[in-house]
Design brief:
By secondary structure, this protein is α+β, with helices and mostly antiparallel strands. The protein has one domain. It is built from 2 helices and 4 strands, in the order βββαβα. The chain is globular and about 45 Å long.
Length: about 110
């Protein structure tokens, strides 16, 4: 990570939405492995692999640029508890991303 790279920022949209009657968080991370972004199914107990893919993609992006997550809720989405939990999750993830990015920048 060079000094010039640390000045570049990428905003990644994180959208809480319903897809096929499932509550999902859609991360608009487009790369070679994720041509359509990354979707985390909030109703599934088997989401570990999706989370591994998400964290891997975020770490890969962080080697190139600073990441800012922008949380939004799909128009008409009505599940208040999911809104609150997803918002808190994205806020906590943003803080961790900033901490890791700062550590990476100080090492390199």
């Amino acid at each position: 990570m060079s000094e010039n790279t640390s000045m570049i920022q990428e905003v990644i949209s994180v959208k809480l939405q319903t897809v096929e009657d499932k509550d999902v968080l859609f991360f608009d991370i487009i790369d070679e492995q994720h041509e359509n972004g990354i979707t985390i199914n909030l109703n599934s107990e088997d989401g570990r692999q999706d989370l591994v893919e998400l964290f891997s993609a975020l770490l890969n992006k962080m080697t190139q640029t600073k990441i800012i997550l922008k949380f939004e809720v799909e128009n008409g989405y009505s599940k208040g508890l999911f809104k609150d939990v997803a918002s808190e999750y994205v806020t906590a993830l943003s803080k961790e991303i900033n901490n890791v990015y700062s550590e990476m920048a100080s090492i390199i």
